[in-house]
Specification:
heterodimer, A: 314 residues, mainly alpha, MetI-like fold, two-stranded antiparallel sheet, 73% helix, globular, B: 278 residues, 75% helix, Binding-protein-dependent transport systems inner membrane component (chain A)
């Protein structure tokens, strides 16, 4: 009897203990999950859903919103500025990723496979642009491109080419291309580092075998290095393409879409419609935002179709 | 393997050198121009400074109110960093190592945002912040950035946490530790490398964040350093005070440079880790 009582007591104590533990667990879970989850629902998911609704409104943010159905979408299709911006987007989503991937692959290959003594310093220098903010990168390039006192014209003059105060960002023909360079310049470093790590994970024996068989450096690059890091290249391509559709900060700071809309992109157009100085057109801007969403999803699907994911085995 | 040095090696080395120069040279150019006078700069953009004008720096500091905007940035970045990293760590632990009902559902719900580009949410987010009276406030920005989007870091830290051995918590519970104690005394110390990586990238993201502060902060006394320099540059177009602007840009770059020098290795490693997960 004594033993039974003792056992009961222990069971009760144990249950008390586990009750306490499970209560603590519940409290912990609430504390750990609730703030982030509520924040996520409120600040991320809810706005994303609301953007669909907003796109059906005629609303300037001040007067009452009017439900107009698909009117915004109809005007969008007729809006030639949207199509011009889309054209610029397409241009950037091809040119910028192509340049970034090509340059960073080349640099990474050189840094990894050639044992030049200065290589370790270069790795640090190349990545540096990725630590700088978009504002700083943009301001640096605005100083470079300036017509009268810019670095670029100054250098051209040293080589005997007088540009007569030509302002690279102020001309409709050059502005769109002039923006490509800071985008590439500011993006390459990250991908150099990514590619270096990918390349260095390729077993050395593969290279050695190729050397023994007398393969030339170029064929080693194209037959061994690039095929084996295809997966990494793919991730990078997706990253840069999607980033080039989304990112408009650098364009906003350097040209704000000008001159005469020659550098406008969809994200920036939407931004200026919603937050620009003259007027706010939240409904229409939201419709364009939805369009942007569709483009991003579309781009992802196209990449998946033409550049399917695959696993490489060594 | 001994490599032969060929003509092509010369070309490659030159290429690497040119890319490095394209990065360093503009920065150095701005640095030495920031020590000249406007008159001298307008006369010749190449000449080296004759007598060094440190006053450009004090002028930039006072004229652009960099002190104030650095304090704003420190408050915004500091609090968002600590709060955001703490919340992400708690969240990652609860969602990857604690079994409870609805865990998969919550995880899936959060992962849903990987498919949302977010850019189309800009307007509703702004309206929401306005309704909550959180616009034109650094605290509002902190709330948005610490509670809002953290999926990327959640995945990164979640991956790190799930690689820790399973019986860690179990033995702690056996010894009578509460889940709070286990989290604080065992999980946090063991996952410090992961937490530090997340914190470093949060720092870079926050310090370099332009669009958020630009949209939400209207009052110049609340500008973060990035927005401040952007506005200063807009004004410079009318005043043509180049050398002061150069000094300002250099001041803004200093924290990035110091940070990079200290965490260079970690930043580079983390960059690869993060992007491969995405």
């Amino acid at each position: 009897m004594n033993a039974k009582m003792y056992g009961d007591e222990q069971a009760v104590r144990k249950q008390k203990g586990s009750n306490k533990a499970s209560r603590q667990r519940t409290v912990f879970l609430i504390v750990a999950i609730a703030p982030s989850l509520l924040g996520y629902l409120l600040f991320t998911l809810y706005p994303n859903l609301m953007s669909v609704y907003y796109s059906l409104l005629n609303w300037d943010g001040l007067t009452d919103a009017k439900f107009v159905g698909f009117d915004n979408y109809v005007s969008m299709v007729k809006d030639k500025f949207v199509w011009r911006a889309l054209y610029h987007n397409l241009l950037y989503m091809i040119v910028v990723p192509a340049l970034i991937v090509f340059i960073s692959l080349l640099l990474a290959y050189l840094l990894n496979n050639k044992s030049y003594k200065e290589n370790s310093i270069y790795k640090v220098i190349f990545f540096f642009t990725n630590v700088l903010s978009t504002v700083v990168v943009a301001l640096l390039w605005s100083f470079i491109y300036d017509g009268s006192f810019g670095l670029l014209n100054g250098m051209l003059e040293l080589f005997g080419m007088s540009m007569n105060d030509f302002y690279w960002l102020g001309d409709t023909r050059t502005a769109i291309w002039a923006l490509v360079i800071p985008m590439v310049w500011g993006g390459v470093g990250l991908y150099v580092v990514i590619f270096i790590n990918a390349i260095s994970s390729i077993p050395k024996s593969l290279y050695e075998a190729a050397y023994l068989e007398g393969a030339r450096p170029m064929s080693i690059l194209f037959r061994i290095t690039i095929p084996l890091i295809r997966g990494v290249i793919r991730v990078c391509v997706v990253f840069v393409i999607l980033g080039s559709i989304k990112g408009f900060e650098i364009i906003m700071i350097l040209t704000n879409g000008g001159p005469e809309g020659s550098t406008d992109v969809i994200g920036l157009y939407m931004f200026n419609l919603a937050f620009g100085k003259e007027y706010h057109n939240y409904g229409y801007a939201s419709a364009i935002g939805m369009f942007l969403f569709v483009i991003l999803v579309g781009a992802k699907l196209i990449i998946d179709k033409f550049y399917p994911e695959e696993n490489v085995e060594y | 393997m001994a490599e032969r040095r060929t003509f092509m090696d010369g070309v490659w080395r030159l290429l690497l050198l040119l890319w490095a120069i394209s990065i360093i040279f503009p920065v150095i150019w701005i640095l030495y121009q920031s020590l000249r006078t406007n008159a001298a700069f307008f006369q010749d953009i190449w000449a080296l400074p004759k007598d060094i004008q440190w006053s450009n720096y004090s002028k930039a500091w006072n004229q652009y109110k960099i002190g104030q905007s650095l304090l704003n940035t420190l408050y915004y970045v500091g609090v968002s960093l600590v709060l955001g990293t703490f919340l992400t760590t708690l969240n990652a632990y609860a969602l990857t190592r604690v079994q409870f009902r609805g865990r998969k559902l919550i995880w899936g719900l959060i992962m849903l945002s990987l498919f949302l580009p977010g850019i189309n949410a800009l307007i509703p987010q702004y309206i929401l912040m306005k309704t909550m009276h959180l616009t034109n406030s650094l605290t509002g920005l902190i709330i948005l950035d610490s509670f809002g989007e953290n999926v990327f870091f959640l995945m990164l830290l979640g991956g790190f946490l799930s690689s820790l051995p399973k019986d860690l918590e179990e033995s702690a519970f056996m010894d009578g530790a509460s889940i709070f104690q286990t989290f604080w005394r065992i999980i946090v110390p063991l996952s410090t490398p992961g937490i530090v990586t997340v914190a470093i990238f949060k720092f870079l993201g926050l310090y370099n964040n332009f669009l958020g502060p630009f949209i939400y902060l209207g009052d110049p006394s609340k500008y973060t350093i990035g927005v401040n320099m952007y506005q200063a540059n807009m004004k410079m177009q009318y005043t043509s005070d180049w050398v002061t602007m150069f000094a300002g840009v250099i001041i803004v770059m200093i924290p990035s440079i110091i940070f990079y020098v200290f965490f260079q290795r970690r930043i580079m490693e983390g960059a690869t880790m993060g992007s491969m997960k995405g």
